[in-house]
Amino acid sequence: MPRHSHSLLLLASTLGSSSSTASAFTTSTSTSSILRRSILVTPPTTSSSSRSMSVLDAFFGKKDFAPPCVMGDESIMSPKAHGTSATPVQKDLRWKCDYDTADRICNFNRHYAEYAGYWLTTSFVEEARSAAGKEITFYDSNTGKPLFIAPKGRSMEEFLKESGSHGWPSFRDEEVIWENVRCLADGEAVSVDGTHLGHNLPDGSGNRYCINLVSVAGRPVGGEEDA
Q1: Per-residue model confidence as pLDDT tens digits over 6-27
Q2: Phi, psi of 182, rounded to the nearest 5 degrees
């Protein structure tokens, strides 16, 4: 299982590469490859892809994940006013994340993802490095509620390296704000308000939450963001 998780993510990304979508689903390989090299990771062996985690459910059955992971039920993702959420994503997302991509992934999607390495094409890495030594709070792109705080128990470079090796920002149990995050039985990670976040793909170190940056690029409502 630990050795298979990354391969399955890349397989999902490759299988989804045939769809045609706009803006953030098409990347400049020169920008992302330079950033990948700068954080000492191996570039994912996949082309620009819009649907990266689409086949994961074929490999992962229903299960309970070990604490402190908090399990949720399917009712969290029931239809609401705007897809699975009550509201669309915020207009001014952090790190220059694409609005249309974010709204599709957050609110009208249960299985697909931003393409592997999309987060490297945003301003996230540069801003994260400028905040070295500080924790970054990641907010729900719909509601502005805090969902993750990272890095915890590791350096920023360690967080960036692990995220880069898997293709998506990757969080550990201690970096999740469980008041606002749930994991469903098929591994889907969601906010309590119905935002699709990504998937829990455990490895030898425990639960690992591979999360779309566009899902956690919100700004706190009525407050100041960290970093």
Answers
A1: 444 543 443 343 343 344 443 3
A2: -135, 155
